[in-house]
Amino acid sequence: MPNFFYQVHFYLFGLIAIASSIAFVTRKSPVAAALGDLRGKWGRLAAGLLGLALLAQVITLAGRRLPAPFTPGGGYDPVAVRDLGAIGSVAQPLFNEYLLAFELTSILLLVAIVGAVVIGRRRRIDAR
């Protein structure tokens, strides 16, 4: 059951990251895109609902014992560190089990960089 919990949150926050990056790249002002456009009642309603959902999660998790990776020293595996080294014990699952997520993140960052360059170049050309 905890594995399903983590998968749901992983994909949920992945979708939020993709939607946020698309919204950021398509806005004229990067500052306004980073702060969010809360004009109108729908933006404030969405922000309020998101805040309530996050508050409910914090309250729910406050009464539970956290899983091993989130407790101090719980995620440390001395056998993996001895066999693979400190960097290898992190890199091995990253490049084996989570390779697709890692590559999608790199593509997402590349798109954000290209979008920032396009926005910056457009302003310089318009200013001339």
General description of the model:
This protein is 79% helix and 0% strand. It is mainly α. The mean pLDDT is 78.
Brief digest:
By secondary structure, the protein is an all-alpha fold.
Task: Assign a percent range to the helix content.
Answer: over 70%
Main beta sheet strand tally, sense and closure: none
Strand content: under 5%
Order of helices and strands: HHHHH
- Radius of gyration equals 20 Å
What is the number of beta strands? Answer: 0
Whole-number average pLDDT?
A: 78
Structural class: mainly alpha
The unreliable regions are none
Give the CA-CA distance, first to last residue.
59 Å
Count of helical stretches: 5
Q: Could you say which overall geometry the principal axes of the C-alpha atoms support? A: flat
Considering the chains and any ligands shown, give keywords for the structure.
mainly alpha, 128 residues
List the SSEs and their pairings.
Layout: H1 2-26, H2 30-35, H3 41-62, H4 78-96, H5 99-127
